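We modelled the chain as a single entity of 388 amino acids. Its sequence is:
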Amino acid sequence: MNFKMVAKTFFGFEDLLVEELKALGAQDIEKGNRMVSFFGDKGFMYKSNLCLRTALKILKPIGEKKVHNPETLYKFVQTIDWSSFMEATDTLAVYATVNSDKFNHSKYVALKVKDAIVDQFRDKTGERPNIDTERPDLTISVHIAGELCTISLDSSGASLHHRGYRSATNIAPINEVLAAGLILHSGWNGITDFLDPMCGSGTMLIEAAMIGNNIPCNINRKEFAFEKWLDWDMDLYERIEASILKKVIESPCKFRGYDKAPSAIRKAKDNIQNANLEEFIKVKEQNFFDTEKEDQEKPLHMVFNPPYGERIAINMPEFYKEIGDTLKKSYPNTSAWFITSDLEAIKHVGLRPSRKIKVFNGKLESRLLQYKMYAGSKRTKFQRNEDD
């Protein structure tokens, strides 16, 4: 039986998520703000959690109603039969997001919802569920926009950017969902060789290799919240997982990464090994500014996350000038993309970006920039794009 689900995502990734859902076979897809709703059955919910690269969470709405104050919220929550979703001896966690004149404190809303659920069990059974914010049996999401309250079950648990392969990170690691979205935004075709010249702990390379080989992004994840639900169907999950893994292909691309820090390369190698991608990804200790493109004639796709100066102190104007100089001098026939939140530093690259896409890295408003480096001439051509 099909039911409605909501996939949450980052600002600017909604269209990417719509395309992923279409490719996966979702029905009645509707784009919203930092979310996309769709319909599917239980198996599709499992598949969505396993496969959606740009989703942060998959929620299953179970109730929606207008509420005007804490009392009407409490009464609404009590109209839901919670014994359908959990036992009195189970644990729960409640999280709320609130955008309302009537409710201005998300933690108070979460507490009120928790009270309504616990009181229902105590009244019916004499027992009450306990709260466990670390590993609950049921995670409940509450969303209030104006007066409209939506109660959902969180089928994912921890955010889906926790892929399960990253055991070691550097000072400023990029979020895995953000990395996958940047690669998809860049339009990489899965045929052209892929380079991350400032690879850090290897996240961009791992996400690219999983895209290129059609490997489900969360195949290495330890658990999903739905595994503790009363209707958990392990046989169905294993069938879905097996059918997805049959669609894995062997990419013709080389995946390469550089980083000048030996510690970063060690961490990247660990993470690549955790993701079982050692045969596809090669990284080495090298300063990008001292490198040259391996094959000058062959097309190359580059996506990277240079330091922002937020958590790593660098001379930004000089650093960004070196990025531009290295691309001009050493990387013909290359489509180079990078993300930055330092909009002033962009001016020092010395090249005009052919595309600019507005994204956020955490709370930092950023731009994903494309620089097209053409072959056959020291003189570089650029395209202007006003879409900022």
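As a brief sanity check on the tokenised model: Confidence is low (pLDDT under 50) at residues 377-388. The radius of gyration is 23 Å.
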